[in-house]
Specification:
Blueprint: H1 2-9, H2 13-25, H3 33-45, H4 49-58, H5 63-74, H6 78-90, H7 94-106, H8 110-122, H9 130-139, H10 149-155, H11 161-171, H12 174-191
Helix pairs in contact: 1-2, 2-3, 3-4, 4-5, 5-6, 6-7, 7-8, 8-9, 9-10, 9-11, 11-12
């Protein structure tokens, strides 16, 4: 802590960010969000994208949160994509929010995948697109999450076989898409 404090006081952004984390979480010291926020801000202003993310998270509800989360997301901090999308959505900037959710989904972020899928399903930030919705629900399986399967089953009845297969192709989950087609065919046959 003492060495980090010296380096942080000398303006080292990595030391500022690291010390901010320790102070925020009370590791080796008393938790102090105000001090952590100041340390993150100093490191973010010096160009540290992880500090920008941490500061953006702590600055929830402020315009500064959006600014710093944009900085972090622009630098490729994957965890920033869904947080930024959430903050933009709160400000009714839905088209931009969807773009960040999709960017996060493409980077493999589970929260971004789920958000993008739900937004495409419901038509937030653009028109309803069930192919893209199913794509991202299925893609969640690629990162070890089955959280979107229930939602996938709910939207499949409104899709054609070709649309389901296209979503499977886009997500890399052709087998699961084919299973959804077969299940839908079985349901249709039972209802007839």
């Amino acid at each position: 802590m003492k060495l980090l404090a010296v380096s942080a006081d000398d303006g080292d952004p990595v030391a500022q960010r690291t010390l901010g984390y320790l102070v925020q979480h009370g590791i080796g010291t008393t938790p102090d969000d105000a001090r952590a926020t100041a340390l993150y801000r100093a490191a973010a202003e010096a160009g540290d994208p992880l500090a920008a993310f941490n500061f953006g998270v702590l600055a929830t509800g402020s315009d500064e949160a959006v600014h710093w989360l944009r900085q972090a997301a622009g630098a490729g901090i994957t965890e920033a994509y869904s947080r930024l999308g959430d903050r933009l959505s709160e400000r009714d900037l839905d088209e931009e929010a969807l773009r960040w959710y999709v960017r996060g989904a493409e980077a493999g972020d589970k929260a971004s995948m789920f958000a993008a899928a739900c937004w495409y399903r419901d038509g937030f930030g653009g028109p309803v697109d069930l192919v893209q919705a199913l794509r991202w629900y299925l893609a969640m399986l690629n990162v070890g999450s089955g959280d979107g399967i229930h939602e996938a089953h709910e939207i499949v009845p409104g899709m054609t076989t070709d649309e389901i297969h296209e979503a499977g192709r886009l997500s890399g989950r052709l087998l699961e898409a084919d299973l959804l087609v077969q299940q839908q065919a079985s349901r249709n046959a039972a209802e007839a």
